[in-house]
């Protein structure tokens, strides 16, 4: 049995812990029903409103801290937040729950004045609360923090103001929200206050702390103990001599560095656009799934889609480190459906081109194109940009060679015949040419005899007989290995015999309608175990797993290859890329 205070009392409740707010909600609902109007005189209502505002404050600071396109240059600690830390912070709101429950008990007592007895605004209370914060909260926090690492000082200014008869409703809201804002600013890992402000008014540095100031406390443990005011560290002799110099360096972009590798992604759809660290970091740390909590935010996400369509440019989404190399994910501000609008094609290519040129100017070594960013009909699998800019130093990679390798290595060695849809695409062509060399019969579904013959003639003469054109799904009724590069409807899937396994390289993946068949996932690989700072999942992928085209760019970077990988796949390089991926510790997912 653990110690009584080793965990929160409601730890075993999981998500049901929010039922602890039930009595407050019930009291408000009961008063509303009796009076027929919102009970503005009820402390329970104000506690719930304050809870909502505090939660919004924390969420906005979480979002701001993870908006790398705004904060990248001013991040205090350059390391990323990994899954382990995110899991440890999952119940960040336990303290808020505790404070709300304690406040409910206190405000429900006879000693606490009713809301109706209070002024909406009383400057005396604000002045007294400020005085008590400086004279009581700050020194109490400093000494308890220095000795015991406890936080007991938040309520002192409020309690003092109310005991003096100068409390007000605005003081409750203002003090609590300002307190939360300052705490969040310190833990945001972003330098919010410019060093120029301290240079212009030196006393300010003793009145308010910064994220850099707090980071030194967590790093060195024996300095910078204050709540918000470094004045008490200065008086107590615990102010780190590095505080202001490091703050200036961080504010000037000391921790900003050029990535070695960039994965250029795009948004899939409106709902999944919320699966980013700067929306909900906890949700982005799990594979994408439809979560009911996100549905009310759909209108907000839709509005952001419109804004991005007209005003946005490629932005940084996330990052991680691998063997000392910085890997970033950038996103083109376009959604999946927009790639199929003919009039949008030119604008999308311009966004991709600008991202490539930006990466080239920065000194990025490899940029890998994701999903529709390398669509053959859009830009020839990246050839458009390489041909237009022949002197690029950054290597442009579509990553499809490793995608093909992953799919091919999933096929059991006993298979002697496969049915291939999307057969004349870049991937389909490479898969057919690779398998025919293994003397595996490939049924290529295509209505274009011209395109089929072009691919068949690429195979060595002795293997051309293994590539067969079919024009209907019925031709695969006896084949139990389907490689799907084109979306299949339920009607088309019914032609597969029982026991069929569907391998996939189609986006979005097909829906598994057949219970007597099995369905593979999109080609993916697990990153090496020594990856650092990885804290978000790539769409539907599991933790630590990335799409094969992403992994292909990683391998290209780790190997230091100097060629572009664009356009048609080189069949002879499929095994080379696969072996290189395994050598560097990437594994099939």
Automatic annotation (TrEMBL):
Membrane disposition: Multi-pass membrane protein
TM annotation in the entry: 43-62, 96-114, 126-144, 156-179, 300-322
Record keywords, A-Z: Membrane, Transmembrane, Transmembrane helix
Gene symbol of the encoding locus: LOC100192547
Domain Very-long-chain aldehyde decarbonylase CER1-like C-terminal as annotated: residue spans: 418-588
Any GO CC annotation of this UniProt entry: membrane
Annotated compartments: Membrane
Name of the protein described by the UniProt record: Very-long-chain aldehyde decarbonylase CER1-like C-terminal domain-containing protein
Originating species: Zea mays (Maize)
């Amino acid at each position: 049995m653990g110690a009584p205070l080793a965990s929160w009392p409601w730890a075993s409740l999981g998500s049901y812990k929010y039922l602890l707010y039930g009595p407050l909600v019930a009291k408000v609902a009961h008063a509303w029903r009796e009076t027929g109007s919102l009970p503005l005189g009820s402390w329970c209502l104000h506690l719930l409103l304050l809870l909502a505002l505090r939660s919004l404050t924390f969420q906005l600071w979480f979002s701001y801290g993870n908006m790398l396109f705004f904060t990248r240059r001013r991040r205090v600690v350059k390391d990323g937040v990994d899954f382990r830390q995110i899991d440890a912070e999952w119940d960040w709101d336990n303290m808020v729950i505790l404070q709300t429950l304690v406040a409910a008990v206190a405000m429900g007592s006879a000693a606490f004045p009713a809301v109706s007895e209070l002024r909406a605004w009383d400057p005396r209370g604000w002045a007294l609360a400020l005085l008590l914060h400086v004279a009581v909260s700050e020194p109490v926090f400093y000494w308890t923090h220095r000795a015991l690492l406890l936080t007991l000082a938040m309520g002192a200014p409020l309690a003092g103001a109310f005991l003096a008869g100068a409390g007000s409703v605005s003081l409750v809201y203002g003090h609590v929200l300002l307190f939360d804002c300052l705490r969040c600013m310190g833990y945001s890992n972003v330098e919010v206050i410019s060093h120029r402000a301290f240079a212009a008014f030196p006393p300010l540095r003793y009145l308010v702390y910064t994220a850099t100031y707090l980071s030194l406390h967590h790093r060195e443990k024996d300095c910078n103990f204050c709540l918000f005011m470094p004045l008490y560290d200065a008086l107590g002799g615990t102010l780190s001599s590095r505080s202001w110099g490091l703050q200036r360096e961080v504010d000037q972009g000391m921790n900003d560095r050029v990535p070695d590798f960039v994965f250029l992604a795009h948004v899939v759809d409106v709902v999944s656009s919320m699966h980013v660290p700067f929306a909900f970091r906890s949700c982005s740390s799990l594979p994408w799934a439809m979560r009911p909590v996100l549905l009310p935010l759909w209108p907000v996400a839709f509005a952001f889609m419109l804004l991005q369509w007209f005003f946005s440019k490629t932005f940084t989404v996330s990052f991680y480190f691998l063997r000392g190399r910085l890997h970033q994910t950038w996103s083109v501000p376009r959604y999946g459906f927009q790639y199929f609008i003919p009039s949008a094609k030119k604008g999308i290519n311009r966004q991709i081109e600008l991202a490539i040129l930006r990466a080239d100017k920065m000194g990025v070594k490899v940029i890998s194109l994701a999903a529709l960013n390398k669509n053959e009909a859009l830009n020839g699998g990246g050839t458009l940009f390489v041909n237009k800019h022949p002197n690029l130093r950054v290597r442009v990679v579509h990553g499809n060679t490793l995608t093909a390798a992953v799919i091919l290595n999933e096929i059991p060695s006993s298979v002697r015949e496969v049915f291939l849809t999307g057969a004349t695409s870049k991937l389909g062509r490479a898969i057919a040419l690779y398998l025919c060399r293994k003397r595996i019969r490939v049924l290529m579904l295509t209505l274009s005899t011209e395109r089929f013959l072009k691919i068949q003639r690429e195979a060595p003469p002795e293997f051309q007989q293994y590539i067969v054109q079919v024009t209907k799904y019925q031709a695969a009724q006896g084949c139990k290995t389907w490689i799907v590069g084109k979306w299949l409807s339920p009607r088309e899937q019914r032609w597969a015999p029982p026991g069929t396994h569907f391998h996939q390289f189609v986006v979005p993946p097909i829906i598994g309608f057949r219970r007597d068949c099995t369905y593979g996932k999109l080609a993916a690989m697990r990153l090496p175990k020594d990856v650092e700072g990885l804290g978000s999942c790539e769409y539907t992928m599991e933790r630590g797993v990335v799409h094969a085209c992403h992994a292909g760019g990683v391998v290209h970077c780790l190997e230091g290859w100097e060629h572009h990988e664009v356009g048609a796949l080189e069949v002879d390089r499929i095994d080379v890329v696969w072996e290189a991926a395994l050598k560097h510790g990437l594994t099939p997912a």
